[in-house]
Amino acid sequence: MTELEKMHAGLLYDANYDPRLIELRAHCADLCIEYSNTLVTNSRRYDLLKQLLEVEELPEGLDIRPPFTADYGSLIHLGKRVFINASCYLMDGGGITIGNDVYIGPYCGFYTANHPLNYTQRNQGLEIAKPIVVGDNCWFGANVSVMPGVTIGSGCVIAAGSVVTKDLPDNALAGGVPAKVIRFIDQNERQD
Question: Which of the residues are catalytic?
Fold first, then answer.
């Protein structure tokens, strides 16, 4: 298996020294820099974003504010009306799927890479990538970190500064380090 195939299969792979993975990340980094340095009013941004995400058409209502950083781009799958605020990083080696109507505050990070605790393996550049999945209608406050392998249910709100290390059920209001469910949200309750 190639290192790319190992990464996709969720196995330990050489993330640091494999020439193909280095090339793919460099290509993505170039596109992220170009996208982030293109004026928001310039329609070329859409073409750059299509190249970055490797899609024919962008999802309806997608808004990614610069600067934006990803590792591969092609492993990010976004729903409709997703808003990603400035200075977010999507480390997408394990794949990141984000549902419809999701709002992500500034300085959030979604990290799919997990490194061995054993420094011998870590120094060999080995890591394992686990997917992150986010349901519909979620809101992430500023500076939230989502760790490898986490699934976040639909309707969740994650408080600013939280670190999500475990799966969250639908409609959870979660916060803290590590994030814990504070209460469940009644989606029929109105705030006036």
Answer: 115
| Tokens encoding 111 | 């990290």
Predicted local confidence at residue 189, as pLDDT: 82
Q: What is the DSSP string of the chain?
A: --HHHHHHHT--EETTT-HHHHHHHHHHHHHHHHHHTS-TT-THHHHHHHHHHT-SSPPTT-EEPSSEEESSSTTEEE-TT-EE-TTEEEE-TT-EEE-SS-EE-TT-EEE-EE--SSHHHHHTTEEEE--EEE-SS-EE-TT-EE-TT-EE-TT-EE-TT-EE-S-B-TTEEEETTTTEEEEE--TT----
Over 80: is that where the pLDDT of 191 sits?
no
Distance, CA of 31 to CA of 57 (rounded, Å): 17
For the cut 80, the answer to whether the pLDDT of residue 192 exceeds it is no
Predicted pLDDT at 84:
98
Is the overall model pTM greater than 0.90, yes or no? yes
